[in-house]
């Protein structure tokens, strides 16, 4: 009852202080500026970043402050082509979504973003990665007359996680029959354990008629499967660089991340901090020459900074893993064709028969058309040969399957300038947007 009262009080407080969203295309020469002011609670930052990330907008800079009961963020964003956001429908969507009560105080979904749906049945899979695992999963679903309407698969540090949305092939409706669901779980679990030969870790399969925010759920599944502590030691200078230090005089833990920039990078790091129950009180994000710099001043939800070396090391490992999970290593292929039952099973079987393994995949359907993206490498880890690419394009169709990116084709070297200090950006921000909390952390630099 006390929890309900607290929730109702929070809603009342928010109604008296509704969020304000300002979207400005004049303030910055090369980006659209989104400013969000709202009542603060744990998870607010993630929800705002999630809305921007779901539109595939690129966050070039961000300034974060959430001291006390108020949340104030500024994001400089562009579309994927580097242009300002000028589409009135997208601007209106951002404004109405971020100002809606459902965004900040959802009444149906739980802490992992689950809401009921009548559109599909959701399958969650985690287990040990191996060549051909997605092909086996798709073959089982095809044999059970299940149609895959959308899916996303990530692999990292020998682990695999996938969220697959299916419908009944003949009817196109969600699968609700309990006996059929049990059969699906049993057969998929057998696939994940490779017929019982994979005993390093237990596989997990879950089937439900629910809808999740798929990418956040994948992070949670990988984190729950402890993919962050089963990798080999990384060579110095390779991959993301994460440091965690103390700002003892002000009671903050300072987290600094440097990595190659990419779409949804900020979502991945903020998602991890939120799910590990850390609160970002201040922060900044900057990107330049394809390099990203992120700086956060955090505490645990109980108000305390990190106070042990073990916790510090675990946070570093988890943030590195969050960045690496979505890193696109391998040949990127895009499939566009008319949807049909069993299509995904056929495509993944062709990849497998040509000695390719799927590192990451995103499957979607829109109006009867399939739009799938696959990141592939040879099972041996070697670059995919040109003749192999030609062979699978011939089997699937030259116009249907396109090469979007081949990292094994050498490009001209890209320059990478060093990032400026984080407080340079924070200082400039608070000159224009004064906030008392900034004076508290400035002495920690």
UniProtKB/TrEMBL annotation:
What this protein is called in its record is ACT domain-containing protein ACR
User: Which species is this record about?
Assistant: Rhynchospora pubera
> Its function?
Binds amino acids.
Output the superkingdom of the source species: Eukaryota
Asked if the record carries the keyword Repeat, the reply is yes
Q: Which stretches make up the ACT domain?
A: 33-110, 122-199, 332-411
Q: Which PROSITE patterns match?
A: ACT (PS51671)
Which keywords does this Swiss-Prot/TrEMBL entry list? Answer: Repeat
For this chain, one GO molecular function annotation is: amino acid binding
Tell me yes or no: is Repeat among this UniProt entry's keywords: yes
